[in-house]
Amino acid sequence: MELHILEHSLKVASIAKEGIQICTHGLIKLAFLPSKTRCKFFSLTETPEDYTIIVDEDGFKELPESEYLSVADATWLALNVVSGGGNAASSQPIGVTKIAKSVIAPLADHNISVFMLSTYQTDFILVRERDLPMVMHTLSSEFTLLRVVNGETVAANSTGVTNGFVKPKLVPRPVIHPLSSPSNMFCVTSLDPDTLPSVATLLMDVMFYSGGAKETGGQSEDSGHIRFFSFSLIEGYISLVMDEQTTRRFPNNVLFTSASGELWKMVRIGGQPLGFDECGIVAQISEPLATADIPAYYISTFKFDHALVPEENIQSVIGALRTNESTGQ
Amino acid sequence: MSSGYKPDILWSPHHADRYVICDTELSLYRIGPAGSPETKAGTLPLSEETAATLLAINSDTPYMKCVAWYPKHEPECLLAVGQANGRVVLTSLGQSHNSKCKELVGKEFVPKHARQCNTLAWNPVDSNWLAAGLDKHRADFSVLIWDISSKFSPESVPAEKARLSGDVDSGLLVTKPLYELGQNDACLSLCWLPRDHQKLLLAGMHRNLAIFDLRNTSQKTFVNTKAIQGVTVDPHFPDRVASFFEGQVAIWDLRKFEKPVFTLTEQPKPLTKVAWCPTRMGLLATLTRDSNIIRLYDMQHTPMPFGDEVEPTIIERSVQPCSESIISSFAWHPSAQNRMVVVSPNRVMNDFTVFERISLAWSSTTSLMWACGRHLYECTEDGGQGAAAADKDIATKMRERAQSHYGHDTVQVWRNHVLAGGDDPQLRSLWYTLHFMKQYTENLEQKQQSNKQSLIYSGIKNIVKSSSGTTETRRCWSGSDRQTDVPRYHSEERSLALQLCGWISRGPDIDVEPFLKSLEQEGEWERAAAVALFNLDIRRAIQILNKGASAEKGDLNLNVVAMALSGYTDEKNSLWREMCSSLRLQLKKAHLCIMFAFLTSEPGAFDAVLYESRVAVRDRVAFACMFLNDTQLPRYIDKLTYEMKEAGNLEGILLTGLTKDGVDLMESYVDRTGDVQTASFCMLKGSPGEVLKDPRVQCWIENYRNLLDAWRFWHKRAEFDIHRSKLDPSSKPLPQVFVSCNFCGKSISYSCSAIPHQGRGFSQYGVSGSPTKSKVTSCPGCRKPLPRCALCLMNMGTPVSSCPGTGKADEKADLTRDKKLAQFNNWFTWCHNCRHGGHAGHMLSWFRDHSECPVSACTCKCMQLDTTGNLVPSDSA
């Protein structure tokens, strides 16, 4: 297995809902006019609380300074697991589950905080730049580490520093944050970048005007519905996460759908904003899923984390996590 | 972003007149001759000769990303279309739907997770197999191989799950691929390998090219590279693959799949298409974005390198099929050589044939061969007998001269100009000059005056420079008492110069009478008269002119000239003088003209004579030696020498001699004529000379030898080498062949020969003089016997018994030649392959009738292995 350390230096920011209008110019440019910026990594996730932006340094310049914009103080690097062109067995569980044991758990054991972003195409594990030596040390045994420099993939040498690193404590990881599961079902999809202009206005409407338009007919969040939408444009690939109702607003054949038409339900982690320093949260969720062989997507935002699991598995997932929760307490 | 679809073009694999343009829809065109009666109003002109007719349009398949044409004859016009959502749809164009096609058209192959389909490829053998390369998905494969004949698989799509697909007609959906390859990566391009149809070459996002074998998909060969777009196999060379990345094309050899064999020069703009020419070996065409030129790389001269170090040569060209517009895409015609159709972004099409590079070669025998495409043309010189000798190509002339032994007459050197054809005044002058030089040298040798000898070959220019002790005389006109007012100069050097000019033969006396006689004999009346006049003998001159007038075919005008001459007066202001000096210019004959110029000019001012270019240099120089004083003469000679050198006029050799100046002169002569033959022979005469060491001279000699070899004039070349080694002993070649003993390894010629470096070692073995005298059948070093001849079974060294088949009468006829032949007959020869051999004579006669080795049970085709063995010298004496 290869672990690619991508060259993007990423910022994680949050825009308050009421301040979104001052940022829309920059966001539209980043999302729909990729040729006008040098940004290669852009992700926008709307949650009921805020908009979370993950963007590289070139893209970050497009955003104005504002009181509504809060930025996590670290620079993040994206890691990407590649099976090295190898052709592994075909019945692999997909998504975060696949890398839970090999990447996420070891990082959690070494107290490295991670920030997850799953897309239609792949999973990105974001780590703080300052944690990189530790990350490389932790993962060098399992992976061939490759670093992308100016578009070229070169072997990254582990610094080999072992002194002073805390020995991992292999303790069971209970789920410590409260979980909730909204009632709406989600779709993880993508679209052909060539067709992006034709749906750009629709996407803008979904991204920025969701608060005003009550298209779902008076359903409120009290009834378990959650407002959640994610758009990312990373190295030319578009990935979208939206609920099922929103997909119906798109013309036929624009969105990439799976042949099986699979739908996903969300598990939302955290009652209080989670912050960036606590580690092991992703591991707490993903490890039980990996054990149960349930595929999942995992999207971290500024305040909370979100896992997506197949709709038919939601009960067993909740069950499994609750069990963990109770044993932890 | 507005016009995301740039038209691409696809030729029908089996119908050379059909192609499809695909952008947002598929349009089938037929290409035909322009202006033919069937041309309808709707045709589009493609070139001056061809036009395209639109046959059908298919707009059933939106979001097309790639298209591939079914490779088999039937169904004829079946296309696979890869869409933006990863589905592959089979569709057809302009077909009267036959049953097989109908069954397939409309069939869709749906990947588990939708993403863009980047590339499609039909398996060339098992044409039911269609490989599709898709973008990456985190949990899906990027290469799906579909079986187009597979039926709807019931287990794959539960009805209630199909809610997002929006397809009602799910009976035509296929969701279960035959094979899945390449997880967690995107496939940007792929192709089947023609050597083994179960093998597939994939190019993935993560910078690798991988070869999968469908029989064992877990094993693969792969290589990391950036060049992962547009992989395409050379149709003429199944191991050669081109792939590209941005502006760079890499060429791979699948047998050595570690790194590209080479990469082509990088283009500043990204490439959009790379295609091998199907009709010509090793021709690759590339197109970059927003460009109006197509670059061609000719790799047919590229041998596959044996080592890594070999950097193959590629000929790069670019063509501009339509001058104004940029090219969106192009496609080679499947059968018409070097033909392609290009399409511009606004669908303007252009039929275009890449003009083949013309390669051209001169043969050594004045014919010219040029090749263009599959045609080979030979142009030969018009060999009509009427062609004047002067118009003949220098190569023809040299060939003829070589055959007539030109240059080989070392006794009567002047005769060489006759051997050369006798019609070139410059050669005539050159060989006479060399003749006089040789003659004078011989005279000197007889008199033991070797101090002057070195001067002879250094030319008149150097001779007059060394002149000293010039005396001045004023002689009377012979036959009268009148004193001339023309001073005449004498010195030893001047008379030497006159000898070299051929005016006087030898000795200190200046007696031109023999020269005049010879001129009279040759009918050169005017020249003779002029020479007589310059020797102040008007009477003799008049007499010569009269003789000339009365001779057969004589010019009666000479009498008139004689009359005019007889009226000569030395009075300065006479009417005669006045008229002669103006009317002489109207005389057509240069010699007559200078005669009057001499008589009418002021003493010491003979420019009208000296610069009369129609008169031979030797006559003008002789004149100058007689009438110019010690200051005028060297100046005149220098000036003339310079002129001759500039013009490359061989008459100037008289002045320069065989010195460095002479080589300079010869250089401009060779530059002008290419006659290395004359140059070689001439310079060889300058023996003990530094001139022979001049690299230019060596170059002429080598070129002349090569030329003789190229004409297969091997005997002539050998004769030339002998001639050369006589005149230039340093050019004797070192021995090139040695025979060493199998047992002790010592050269058998060394140990028995008193002279260690004797090239003709074989003369010891059999016949040096008498055949019985020195017989060596064993190694002189170790006394072991020499190998046996495969034919006569005698040990080598035994002389060949008399050649069977040679008539006795012939033997006597050409004794010397037979003897030489007999010597060679005894020589060793052997096959480098089977190592059998024997006496050269025996072998020669054996292989006259056989192609196989004479040793029984040896099946070596020795004679066929010898590429030069079947060549026949074209000058067989």
Brief sketch in words of this structure:
The complex is a heterodimer of chains A (329) and B (877). Chain A has 329 residues and is an alpha+beta fold.
Describe this structure in words.
Chain B: GO terms for molecular function: zinc ion binding. Chain B: Keywords: Lysosome, Membrane, Metal-binding, Repeat, WD repeat, Zinc, Zinc-finger. With 329 residues, chain A is an alpha+beta fold. Chain A has one domain: VC0802-like (2-Layer Sandwich). Chain A is 25% helix and 30% strand. Chain A is built from 8 helices and 17 strands. Chain A has a 17-stranded mixed sheet that branches. In chain A, helix 3 packs across helix 7 and helix 7 packs across helix 8 (314-328). The two termini of chain A are 36 Å apart. The model of chain A is unreliable at 84-91 and 213-221 (pLDDT under 50). Chain B has 877 residues and is of the alpha+beta class. Chain B has a domain at 457-629. Chain B has 26 helices and 36 strands. In chain B, the strands form 10 sheets. A 5-stranded antiparallel sheet of chain B has the order 1-2-3-5-4, with no helix packed on it. In chain B, a hairpin with a 6-residue loop joins strand 27 (329-332) and strand 28 (339-343). In chain B, helix 6 runs antiparallel to helix 7 and helix 12 runs antiparallel to helix 13. Chain B starts with 7 loop residues before the first strand and ends in a 12-residue tail after the last helix. At the A-B interface, strand 11 and strand 14 of A face strand 14, strand 17 and strand 18 of B.
